[in-house]
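Hypothesis: this fold can be encoded by more than one sequence.
Test: take the structure tokens below, design a sequence, compare later.
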């Protein structure tokens, strides 16, 4: 029995070592976003889209709101945030849906497939939570691989200038956007006032 115990202990130690090494060599991991990720996320978004990103059309759907619960994700490599994506509650002409964005990946890490992994993770999580559709504004050629198209967005509009061919959607439940038409508006929970004030100050500084 003693010999068997030692063998099992050795096997367990070897397995633990293998798991630890795998984690060390893994290119990146995806998890739910934490409060400690916010500063790094904002730096990444500034680097990806510019410090004037808060003036963009889709930002109107996020201003003063918080992301859908459990649908904000971070990609990390050795503890460093290298990717981000979040989803937000909206009404698509009266039809409940989610808007995805922004999706951003650190420039030095884009060859790892981080963006695609974040997209798949976010869509899988949204479907698992029972959501019917996800909408975004983006490059049709890139997002087609995830099922996004203009098939259900022709009668929808954004609260600001946009190119109709870049307003895309994917149904996570067949027919979820059949009756969607009109303006897409934010419906998510309001962000704490301190966060809204902080965002306003940042905008004022960037505009100065």
């Amino acid at each position: 029995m003693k010999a068997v115990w030692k063998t099992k202990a050795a096997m367990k130690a070897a397995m633990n070592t293998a798991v630890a090494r795998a984690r060390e060599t893994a290119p990146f991991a995806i998890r739910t976003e934490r409060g400690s990720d916010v500063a790094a996320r904002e730096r990444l978004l500034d680097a990806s889209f510019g410090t004037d990103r808060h003036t963009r059309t889709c930002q109107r759907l996020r201003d003063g709101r918080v992301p859908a619960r459990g649908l904000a994700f971070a990609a990390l490599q050795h503890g460093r945030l290298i990717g981000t994506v979040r989803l937000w509650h909206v009404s698509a002409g009266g039809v409940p849906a989610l808007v995805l964005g922004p999706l951003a990946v650190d420039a030095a890490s884009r060859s790892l497939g981080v963006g695609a992994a974040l997209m798949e993770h976010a869509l899988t999580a949204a479907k698992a939570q029972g959501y019917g559709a996800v909408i975004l504004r983006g490059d049709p050629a890139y997002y087609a691989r995830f099922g996004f198209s203009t098939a259900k967005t022709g009668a929808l509009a954004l609260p600001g200038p946009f190119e109709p061919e870049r307003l895309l959607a994917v149904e996570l439940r067949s027919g979820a956007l059949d009756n969607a038409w009109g303006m897409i508006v934010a419906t998510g929970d309001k962000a704490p006032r301190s966060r809204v004030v902080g965002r306003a100050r940042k905008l004022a500084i960037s505009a100065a």
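The radius of gyration is 20 Å. Strands lie at 29-32, 72-77, 80-92, 95-100, 104-105, 133-137, 156-157, 167-171, 182-186.
Hypothesis status: open.
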